[in-house]
Amino acid sequence: MICPNCHDNELEGTKVIDTTHDARGGIRRRRECKKCKTRFSTYELPVLASPAIVKQDGTREEFDREKLKRGIALACVKLPVAMADIERLVGEIESKLQQLEKSEVTSRVVGDLVMAGLKNLHEIAYIRFALVYLGLDDLQAIRQEVDGLIES
What we know:
Radius of gyration: 22 Å
Shape: elongated
Strand order of the largest sheet: 1-2-3
Helix content: 40-55%
Oligomer: single chain
Largest sheet: 3 strands, antiparallel
Order of helices and strands: EEEEEHHEHHH
Strand content: 15-25%
């Protein structure tokens, strides 16, 4: 660990004073440089591999957390949905994808996870997303989706 103060980078240059676990599954360590006695914190987060996304046309792309967040946020525009709730939903979807332990998943799997999450988050955001995702292009199809939402 390199000291941010004196930039000492000896193998045993710092000692750990305290270790705590945070809510995101990471570890916060309080350290002290053995050379200059400066104290500082480091954060360790697990890096889990997300599967590649196979699109409908057969192309593959890397899972993009920010792209997913933008899509969900777009469905929630001008609705009383907190950004923290959107972040939580994105995290849940990413976690479920990682738990599948597959190297590739279809975009349909991701879309279905978003639909389920938005259904619980905000019904209007769910309908907005469904319009695009399910390709609802006539009033009868939209009405059927709304009626299904009302019944559940």
